[in-house]
Design goal:
With 420 residues, this protein is α+β, with helices and mostly antiparallel strands. Helices cover 21% and strands 39% of the residues. It is globular and about 75 Å long.
Length: 420
């Protein structure tokens, strides 16, 4: 495909405000999609309002103003509603949380037409602060309602967006570790990217530290708290003896420049960038990578939500013993949902092979085959289904699939929880 015809979209969907970027193949960087002619104003309030007179839907600042004037009914906290499966009744009609997300996405994505009037979306990446599986699936459903299926859409975390953003910059900015202070409505967090350059391909890992109990929005309004001193203490603690080339600062908690002197002091020996659009730009770079226009194909991005091990099973195939991959490493734990079918050949157990890409450690787990139905050899077909409980625990479910029309399936035989 001609790159100039590609429409690459990064979308930061948050509870309060959202932002959109599209990749420009003229400037070779993401460009902001603004709701007004003011190019400095990239924040779009995540809110809808149905007008009482015309029953039309407004979004963003117009929605908030309409509801404030008593001319319509506001629908906000859309991600909260999605997570809890809440419905909203407006003028006697019920709307599911997914349908509200779909309306908001439809309205805001129309802004792209001002820059790309004829192109259809090649790839879109939506980035979220909270990677709740219910929210993720709801967003995929809303995108499907817009005609955008999973082959053109991905949902990733803010942490992943940061990795895509940081590693898409000039190489000298990530010669050593890279750090990010994020002060959002949920409080202060610190992300640190470390790169193992001796691995082939290189592995970029990320660690997140939560300081929301120490520094949050409520403290901003507490005049008795020395915010500058508190932040400086946290920054000096996490950066102590760390070799960090570049620091980023994002989040509306850093507005009003109260931390300006601390940030200035952290510039010594480092490059420092402050801005509010890091995640949407990172999502845009991610969409570019996923569209096939790869720049980071020599680096494995391993964020704090991904499993660090690949999972395989030892089988006989074509007369020889082989290891068949079930799931790759460097996959978000909530996306692990794989299965494979095998036929028993006088086997009393199954060997699961877990390979850690960070430590190179190999663990071989022998899983006993229990409760097998009494059948002739090679007449029992088993389904091995793996999912993850979190990034360190994989669940293996073994089920009997029967054997054609000869033997009926008996269903689940056993369930195991393995460390990865």
């Amino acid at each position: 495909m001609d790159n100039s015809r590609k429409l690459i979209v990064g979308y930061d969907l948050c509870e309060d405000y959202s932002q959109i970027n599209c990749y420009s193949y003229k400037t070779f960087e993401p460009i902001p999609i603004c709701p007004t002619e003011d190019e400095e104003n990239t924040l779009i309030p995540t809110a809808l309002c149905e007008k009482s007179d015309s029953r039309t839907w407004l979004y963003g600042n117009e929605a908030i103003a309409c509801a404030k004037d008593g001319l319509g009914v506001l629908a906000d906290k859309l991600l909260h509603k999605l997570k809890h499966g809440e419905e909203v009744t407006i003028f006697g009609e019920k709307y599911s949380a997914v349908s509200l997300i779909e309306k908001y996405l439809r309205k805001t994505l129309m802004l792209i037409k001002n820059h790309f009037p004829t192109e259809t979306i090649t790839q879109i990446v939506v980035t979220l602060h909270e990677m709740d599986p219910v929210i993720i699936e709801g967003i995929y459903e809303a995108l499907y309602m817009l005609g955008i299926e999973k082959d053109r859409a991905n949902v990733i975390s803010h942490g992943s967006s940061f990795m895509y953003y940081a590693l898409s910059q000039e190489r000298e900015l990530w010669l050593n570790d890279v750090g990010l202070f994020d002060f959002s409505e949920d409080g202060l967090s610190f992300y640190q990217i470390s790169i193992n350059r001796r691995a082939n391909p290189m592995i970029a890992g990320m660690e997140k530290k939560d300081f929301s109990d120490t520094l949050n929005y409520s403290l901003l309004r507490n005049k008795k708290i020395d915010m500058e001193y508190t932040f400086e203490t946290i920054a000096n603690t996490v950066l102590y003896k760390q070799i960090i080339s570049t620091l980023y600062f994002t989040g509306r908690g850093f507005t009003d420049n109260w931390a300006g002197e601390v940030i200035k002091s952290l510039c010594a020996g480092r490059r420092v960038f402050v801005g509010q659009n890091l995640y949407t730009k990172g999502a845009c770079y991610a969409a570019k990578e996923l569209s096939g226009d790869e720049n980071l194909n020599n680096i494995i991005l391993l964020n704090n939500e991904m499993i660090v091990s690949s999972i395989g099973v030892k089988v006989y195939l074509d007369g020889i013993s082989q290891e068949i991959l079930i799931s790759n490493a460097a996959v978000p734990w909530y996306e692990v949902n794989k299965e494979i079918e095998v036929i028993c050949d006088e086997a009393s157990d199954i060997e699961i092979v877990i390979r850690n890409i960070m430590t190179k450690e190999i663990i071989r787990e022998r899983i006993p085959l229990k409760n097998l139905p009494d059948r002739p050899n090679r007449m029992t077909r088993l389904n091995l289904h793996i999912t993850c409980e979190d990034k360190t625990k994989v669940k293996l479910v073994i089920s009997d699939m029967g054997f054609g029309d000869i033997y009926q399936a008996t269903g689940k035989l056993a369930e195991y929880l393995l460390d990865v």
